[in-house]
Known about the structure:
Layout: E1 2-6, H1 9-26, E2 31-34, H2 41-54, E3 62-65, E4 67-70, H3 80-87, E5 99-100, H4 109-122, E6 128-131, E7 153-156, H5 159-169, E8 178-181, H6 184-188, E9 193-197, H7 203-211, E10 229-234, H8 244-259
Parallel strand pairs: 1-10, 2-3, 2-6, 3-5, 6-9, 9-10
Antiparallel strand pairs: 4-8, 7-8
Amino acid sequence: MRVIIEKNYEFMSKRAAEIIAEQIREKPDSVLGLATGFTPLGTYKELIGMYKKEGLDFSRVTTFNLDEYYPIPSTHPQSYHYYMQKEFFKHININLDHTYILDGLVKDVKAFCRWYEEEIRKAGGIDLQLLGIGRDGHIGFNEPGSSLGSRTRIKTLDAATIKDNARFFGKKEDVPKYAITMGVGTIMDAKRCLLLASGSDKSKVLTKAIEGPITAQVTASILQMHKDLIVIADEKASRDLKNKDYYQHIEKLTEELKTLTIEE
């Protein structure tokens, strides 16, 4: 696990975008797992800037989104279909035929979820999965108590999640009570995971996720077992980390190592 601490949200977003851009440059046909919500907005903004200013090429990239409310039409302003088009896809040269977003109105949910898992497999698996963390430690919509081996499925949303999301819908009663989400096991299958955390309201749960015990009550904690996890947090989100000084020391040496030239 690599933990990178940046001074604020802007710097966190830039670092995350740099890592994603590096993935695309090294493998132009990369398969990316994408997240929604407030946290990744800055990252998407930075990637759009790289496309426009540096020619970062998304034409061969395939994407799979983490989750979607259920039931909700793709045209709803709070659907993640709408979010991805508005905040990212329409600003870059990605082939929309290669973008996969969970269907918030599908009739046979179980069959659809099996299909989604199969499409990920046929694409060669996810090379890099972008993640945020909920206030209760969830990733995707894998609420506390979710199986750590779960696959893509429909989930009932926790009351706290519904309350948090009410600000986007106007009132609690308008928030969908269900979501279709990649499972924890699906997320763990990604070759690399990139977890972002910003703000003081994420400080305690981030500490539980990366320094606490692995538990289904904090589904993000399973990421400690991932073979290639990068965590990027801003100062506010990282303030409760017990090993913060250690992470900063290791990251400094990691960056210095890149500049070293070893003579034979």
